[in-house]
Amino acid sequence: MAQRKSRSDRRIDLIEAARRAIIRHGIDGVQLSHVAEEAGLTSGAVLYHYPDLSELLVEAQHAGMERFYEQRLRRLATLTDPVEKLVVTIRSGLPTGSLDPDVRLLNELGGAAGRNRVYGVLLTSLYDRQVSMYQAILDTGAALGVFRLSAGSLTIARNLVALEDAYGYRITARHPVIGPDEANELILSYARAATGNDLAH
Amino acid sequence: MAQRKSRSDRRIDLIEAARRAIIRHGIDGVQLSHVAEEAGLTSGAVLYHYPDLSELLVEAQHAGMERFYEQRLRRLATLTDPVEKLVVTIRSGLPTGSLDPDVRLLNELGGAAGRNRVYGVLLTSLYDRQVSMYQAILDTGAALGVFRLSAGSLTIARNLVALEDAYGYRITARHPVIGPDEANELILSYARAATGNDLAH
DNA sequence: TCCATTTTTGAATTCACCTTCAAAATGACG
DNA sequence: CGTCATTTTGAAGGTGAATTCAAAAATGGA
User: Fold this and answer.
1) Is the Cβ–Cβ distance between A164 and B163 less than 8 Å?
2) How many structural domains comprise chain A?
3) Do A190 and B186 touch (CB under 8 A)?
4) Does B170 reach chain A within 8 Å, measured CB to CB?
5) Nucleic strand D within 7 A of Cβ A8
6) Fewest CB within 10 A of the end CB: N or C in chain A?
7) The CATH number of the domain where A127 resides is what?
8) Residue A23 domain-assigned?
9) Percent of chain B with pLDDT over 90
10) Which positions does the record tag as DNA-binding (chains A, B) (predicted)?
11) Does the pTM of the predicted model rise above 0.85?
């Protein structure tokens, strides 16, 4: 029998297992048995903790999103220079490669968000928070006179997050030319035009 | 019995039915019976024409993509002024609303493209062709002295398509603030900065 | 150590979908 | 109008996954 664990530990395990299963089989293709296999348990054990698979999937998506966002915030908190903040934040929004699990998980939501309200709300809320994050960086830089914004900070922030999202899709779809470095440079090109700063540091 | 049709007519029907079924149930959630229902046939009849459902799904995605792209090209062909071309093309890349079937279909590919090579190739080729489309507009405008590009036309074109993609996701996910008009304005903001033209016509 | 409780298993059942196929319906063509 | 090839149906069979549940195993506490 699989090692027994406390209720909360097991739920965390299952959320992780569900995350991997979603990446492997797609949000509409995951099966109870996939999650069980990833967790090293039987289907019955999964069902004992989550009688409804769809609830587990939502929790897994939610946890993945929060982790992604928190990671970016933590990275950001170590910096003070607005230029450096902007450069580092752009990079941290891109997948490390075509297999990056965090971005692959988020990408699974793209289509489902149009069909499923819960996923739509989750994805929208992540987008808005990332926009706020960029907006704070832009406003700070503008206040310090480092940035001369070509448009409102909200507009620029929305576009920056949008570009990250889109290149995340391109990279996980294995575009033969656009990888993490190329995407980074493309977004920086916009960021330079929008901030009037050459963003070298 | 459902009206009998010629082989090629029926295949076109089935591709349309599959398109609707994908939008309704997701690319990984579609079932033979969903397609049959959309087509007004039984599962057996669908199988008679497409013994392998996944082939039909690929054809449906392919057809949807081609239609989307051809539509944009046709719209573009009616214009000569680079400014107008750019403005109209940006608009034609956005969904008309959160239910826009063409964009919802494309969005279904986002996640699957990371798992399925065929879908990855399809999506990548659409992206590249749209980039070329924009690049031609930008190069023409620059040659005529109407645009003063802030970066290489390839860079700007890639970013424009990326922005369209991303806002397509936001809109179909029913972002409470970002609708077609707002997204259009956001992309125009970038296009103005990138072309040095206020894009009023 | 033993007991009570919680967790997990594994087998049985049910359900839903895919697949196959014989028979029926349809339409083209002589 | 009759024949024939094509298309469609509908039922039967097979497969695999979800669900249920009694029994077994693991754990913590007395």
Assistant:
1) no
2) 1
3) no
4) yes
5) no
6) N
7) 1.10.357.10
8) no
9) 94
10) 31-50
11) yes
